[in-house]
Amino acid sequence: MKTLNTTLAVIILTSSSAAYAAVDFASFDIDSDGVITKQEAQVNAQLVKLFDDLDTDGNGELSKEEFAKVQ
Q1: Which of 26, 42, 46, 47 is deepest in the core (most CB within 10 A)?
Q2: Does residue 62 sit in helix, strand or coil?
């Protein structure tokens, strides 16, 4: 069920026209440390909703690999 919810959320995120402009890892990784924190994700409401599902290792950060699931 978690996979289905994540898949549906990813479809919603990528289908939004605003999301197309912002679905770029570097645009969210504000401090350029190679991860997106929950605080950095706050700029996009859809990413905030997806954050916990995308954070598969549960460390509170999205790696490039984890973030790539939205693309």
Answers
A1: 47
A2: strand
Contact 53, 10 (CB under 8 A): no
**Nearby residues of 54 by Cβ (< 8 Å), 6 or more positions away:** 6, 62, 66, 67, 69, 70
| DSSP state for residue 9 in the 8-state scheme | H
Q: What angle, rounded to 10 degrees, do the helices at 2-15 and 45-54 form?
A: 150
Q: What is the pTM of this model?
A: 0.68
Name residue 62's beta-bridge partners: 36
CA distance 46 to 33: 22
Instruction: Give the model confidence (pLDDT) of 23-66 as tens digits.
Output: 689 999 999 999 999 999 999 999 999 999 999 999 999 999 99
CA separation for the pair 58, 68 (Å, rounded): 16
